[in-house]
Predict the structure.
Amino acid sequence: MTNNATHKLTSICLLVSLIIAVPLQTQAQTLRPSGPLRLSSPLSPALGPREGAAQQSADFIVAVVNSEPITNNDVRSKLQRAEQQLTQQGVVMPPRAELVRQVLERVIGDKAQLQEAKLSGVRVDDNAVAGAVEAVAQQNQISVDELRRRLVADGIAYNIFREQLRDELLVNRFRQREVDARVKVTDLEVDQFLREQETNTDVSSMDINLAQILVAVPENATPEQVKALEAKAQQAADKARSGADFGVLVNEFSEASLRAAGGQMGLRNAERYPTLFLDATKALRNGAIAGPIRSGAGFHVLKVVEKRRAGTPSINITQTRARHILLRPSPQLNEAAAAQKLADIKRRVVAGQDFAVLAKENSDDGSAKDGGDLGWANPGMFVPEFEQVMNSLAPGQISEPFESRFGVHILQVLERRESQLSNREQRELARAALREKKLEDAYALWAQEIRGRAYVEYRETPQ
């Protein structure tokens, strides 16, 4: 088995907890990021048959949960995965004894939840399991048959893999039924959330996007030159306050190097801005103008594009309209062949053929019937690897073939626009943020309750 195949199987183990039981029935559904199940992966890391057999021969019971045993191998596989994830995330590894204790408690909690889920009457049918298997295969860019082959080659029985997936889905459904019903977000809470976002003046907790016009002052400028440049900056500020388009003013008055993106510096934490800028804008609301203010570089006119508490939904967004062609690799068309075919399609588009027609004829995505058009998309609507390429293109540009977790694409950005979320959309985002926070708290409490009801007998220390 090649190193690449082993790497892909390891990624299968890490991705199982990110699948969705029911596929999204939307246009271009494969590009939408799926929500996590918040479950531990049921698979052990990819092991060769010999290594797996060695572990099995040394196995022993480390704990019993309501008469069901937890073995050393159960904890060992989860421990290896935890170490992998901590390493990938760059997190400092805790002492091994502490990590073993944490993993054991997690396994005990998972076992108790599965036991209660099985007693709850919740069921997962074979169609849901088949959909989950398909999702794992898609995320690893392989077919279900290839997934089965790689599992067997690494000593993981396919029927056991399916039953572990079934358990994951069962616990997830049980958890949703039990926890989601506890979480309610009232209109009053949404109103308070939005008021706090508007009135919060603690700069250190803010994310801010400022746009600026810089009228540069040469290092050896005479007083007359400085006065003339200050007057120019004041003129720009007056026009901005009177309602002129700030992006147009940037092109008219600002230094050429700062004209991209309408002079916007991007949403960032307040501490990443100069103190001079923060002092001038800390009392201002979105849309307000500050300046001119003087720095060593010259005179600045600042516009508060957006100001919000860190971690809260964005109000001002850049929307992108793009279209793409997706080819899913198969036994008849591997990744390299798909990339070559898409490169040829791109050459035909550049030569004058209609992208939309070629998308209808070739794309494997649900958007093919619309010529690959994905419509206007807000940030975060697509999976990161797709969105990264999309954001790197100017309107009219076509990408080179690239891979995502769903296949090989080419995409073309059609246009972009700045948009402000409507009041209804802002409230929906606020409600979602509040609900997510409440769900986290409710899940933690629910997990504690399940754990508290379980009878746990500790046997031997996991090795």
In short: Residues 200-309 form a domain with the Chitinase A; domain 3 fold (CATH 3.10.50.40). The longest helix spans residues 423-453. The chain has 15 helices and eleven strands. Residues 78 and 103 are 7 Å apart (CA to CA).
